[in-house]
Amino acid sequence: MEVAKLTIIGGGNLGSAIARGILDKGLLKPSQLTITRRRVKLLESFAEKGVVITDDNLSATTGADVVFLAVKPYQIEEVIKEITSSLTDNTIIISLATGVSSQEIEQYCGMKLPIFRAMPNTAIEIGESMTCVSSYNANQKQEDTVITLFKQMGQALIVPEELMAASTVLAACGIAYAMRFIRAATQGGIEIGFGSQLALQIAAQTVKGAADLLIQKGNHPEDEIDKVTTPRGVTISGLNEMEHQGFSSSLIKGLLTSYNKIESSKK
C-alpha cells in the first residue's frame, strides 16, 4: 500500500478510532497522518505521538493520497466544497457518512475521482472491525489499496453501493446491539450471583468465543446451538423463554427500524 499522506477530516469518535487503528498497526508513520477537528485541542494526544493536527481542512488535504470524510452527512457538502481545490484526479476519497451517495459526493467535488464509501465499526480501534466498502470510479489498484488498509484493521469486503445502508445497520449499528446483549447477559449474571466485573468478563468472553466458532468453522449458528441443547435441558428452556419474550423478533425489528431510519433520511 503506497500512501505517503493520509488525512482524516473529522477526528471525532470514529475518525479517532481509525487513526488509532492505523497507528497501532504501524500502517503509517505518525508524521504521515493528519487529523482535523474544529476543537483541535481534543486531538492533542495524537499530536504528542507526532501526528499532524489542525482545524484547517484545506491545508490538511493538500498533497494527501487518501482523504477520509469522517463527518456527519449534513456536513459532507460543505466540507467537500471547502477542500475541492486541494484534490486531484488520483485523490482517494473515503466517505464514512451514512446515506450520502458516491454520485452526490462526485457532484459536490465537481470532478471525477475515485470515491469509496466505507462503514467500519468502532472495533477498528483494536483491529477487529467488520468494514463494508463500496467503490465508484476506482481502478483495481485503488480498490486494493483501500481494502488492504481496512483489512489491516479487521475484516473488509467490497459490496454494491445499494447495500451500504444495510451494511451500516448490520456492522456499525450491530456492534452496539452486540454490546447491549453483553450488558443484558451481565445483568442476568449479577441476578444469579456473580459480581458485576466477573459477570461482564464471562459474558464478553462467551460472546467472543461464539463469534470465533462461527468465523473459524463456518457453521450455521443453529448447528452450534444444537450441540449445547439437550432434551429437557437448561439451555433449551432458557432459549425458548427468550423466544417467547420476543428475543429474535425484537432484534430483527431493531435492525429494520435502524435501516428504515437511514432510508427515510434520503427522502
From TrEMBL:
<keyword id="KW-0560">Oxidoreductase</keyword>
<keyword id="KW-0521">NADP</keyword>
<feature type="domain" description="Pyrroline-5-carboxylate reductase dimerisation">
    <location>
        <begin position="161"/>
        <end position="262"/>
    </location>
</feature>
<keyword id="KW-0641">Proline biosynthesis</keyword>
<keyword id="KW-0963">Cytoplasm</keyword>
<dbReference type="InterPro" id="IPR028939">
    <property type="entry name" value="P5C_Rdtase_cat_N"/>
</dbReference>
<protein>
    <recommendedName>
        <fullName>Pyrroline-5-carboxylate reductase</fullName>
        <ecNumber>1.5.1.2</ecNumber>
    </recommendedName>
</protein>
<dbReference type="InterPro" id="IPR036291">
    <property type="entry name" value="NAD(P)-bd_dom_sf"/>
</dbReference>
<feature type="domain" description="Pyrroline-5-carboxylate reductase catalytic N-terminal">
    <location>
        <begin position="5"/>
        <end position="98"/>
    </location>
</feature>
<dbReference type="InterPro" id="IPR029036">
    <property type="entry name" value="P5CR_dimer"/>
</dbReference>
<comment type="function">
    <text>Catalyzes the reduction of 1-pyrroline-5-carboxylate (PCA) to L-proline.</text>
</comment>
<comment type="pathway">
    <text>Amino-acid biosynthesis; L-proline biosynthesis; L-proline from L-glutamate 5-semialdehyde: step 1/1.</text>
</comment>
<dbReference type="Pfam" id="PF14748">
    <property type="entry name" value="P5CR_dimer"/>
</dbReference>
<dbReference type="GO" id="GO:0004735">
    <property type="term" value="F:pyrroline-5-carboxylate reductase activity"/>
</dbReference>
<keyword id="KW-0028">Amino-acid biosynthesis</keyword>
<dbReference type="InterPro" id="IPR000304">
    <property type="entry name" value="Pyrroline-COOH_reductase"/>
</dbReference>
<comment type="similarity">
    <text>Belongs to the pyrroline-5-carboxylate reductase family.</text>
</comment>
<dbReference type="InterPro" id="IPR008927">
    <property type="entry name" value="6-PGluconate_DH-like_C_sf"/>
</dbReference>
<dbReference type="Pfam" id="PF03807">
    <property type="entry name" value="F420_oxidored"/>
</dbReference>
